Amino acid sequence: MTESIAGWFKHLHERTGINLTVFYDAFDAARFVAGVATTIELALICVILSLVIGLGGVIVQGSRSRLLKAVVNAYIQFFRNTPSLIQLYFFYFGLGPLIALPNASGQSVPLVSNFAWAAICFSIYAGAFNIEIFRAGVEAVSRSTVEAAEALGYTRLKSYIHVILPLAFRYSFPAFSNNMVNLTKLTSVSYAIAVPEILYASSQIWSDALNVPEMMNIVLVSYVLIVSVFVYAMGRIERALRLPGVGI
Amino acid sequence: MSAGKETILAVLVNWTPYILKGFAINVFISIVSMALATVLGVVVGVGQISTNRAVRSVCWAFTNFFRNAPWLVLLFYCMLLLPFQFRVGGVAVAIPDWAKATLGIAIAAAANMSDLVRGAIQSIPTGQWESAESLAFTRRQTLFLVILPQCIKRLLPPWMNLYALVMVSTPLCAIVGVNEIMTVAADILAANTRHDLLIPVYFYILLLFFFYCYPIARMTQRLERRFAVIG
Hints:
The complex is a heterodimer.
Chain A: H1 2-16, H2 21-24, H3 26-61, H4 66-80, H5 84-95, E1 100-102, E2 108-110, H6 114-140, H7 143-151, H8 156-171, H9 173-186, H10 198-209, H11 212-241
Antiparallel strand pairs in A: 1-2
Helix pairs in contact in A: 3-6, 3-10, 4-6, 5-6, 6-8, 6-9, 7-8, 9-11, 10-11
Chain B: H1 8-47, H2 53-67, H3 71-81, E1 85-88, E2 91-94, H4 97-123, H5 126-134, H6 139-169, H7 172-175, H8 181-192, H9 198-230
Antiparallel strand pairs in B: 1-2
């Protein structure tokens, strides 16, 4: 089966010149599949980390401390209004060499890999948006619900964890899923620091096989497919989380 | 490393005119691509509610396809697949790199703009369409004289948001080889060959973007709040 597919693409190349190496060359196929896997892995790690940052940030913003609120707000505004590429360079080239240990031959080896820096950087970036999104959700939780929780003796933190956030998360889910889609698209920027995701893997393939137009189209279609699956999954989660009688 | 080592601040001050020149290119690219994106986005957005089924599906497909594609991939697409020159009556006209990159950003932004326009049109109460119809406006007249003018107010905050997004996306052009602020940063770092400059230079550029985009974000918030009361 796979051999006949490979044969067909080889034939296609000989007849039309359309050179889709990823379908018949085992080496290119492995590189490309690894790239897709890296993109998905990076996206999932960033989704989880940015979710944690978003929830943590919104709890801090609900606290009474002025200083903490100001710090979180400064973080949100700074990361929202600056280019993620330069943030990535700042982390990877600026901070990366500082966090290093010397190896046996005395050269300093960075402790944090480029993949890890990309994950950290994109999570911090998307996390800033998540805090804003969740805060809008918290504001949508009705005042009487919060008061009812207080009347039942919940502390501020406990009422956040058990009452407000579960509701707020549902209110802000559409905006959150939109942000996560943007995050998935953002992972392609890690090309700049040579993380072997789809775009980087493809650029290596097209510089070997000189099939730029074919690879470019494959990259575009792969991303659109990944994002579409992601959008579908988020839609399913949204429906599964729905509370009857609560919601918009 | 030279004996008379400049302080980091002195290096940054000395290079500031050059950095600002690089930043000006980013501003220029962002303005041109936003202008293109606005025109294209409004056309495609209006096309999404066309009565013609073919137009509607083409515009829908354009919007959703390019909205789901990463900006960097679109940039690569435009950079690598557009010809480096075209012929007008035997004369070869070169397409500069920045123009291709601008087009790449514009297409991505246009898809977003198109969705904003469709959303804005659909947010206008249907009573507006019906009353215009009862006043004997044609569909075209209704759209241009009644619906779109009302959309402008609703579109302004998200449009400004999109502009800020376009602006912070312009450094991506450096990856595909356009000379702009990231190239300037690389020049400074290469000219000085000092590792302690990395963080200050990148931070300086981050601050430049921040002071350009933050006022836009604040203005957007204020407009949103103001319109929320009326709308």
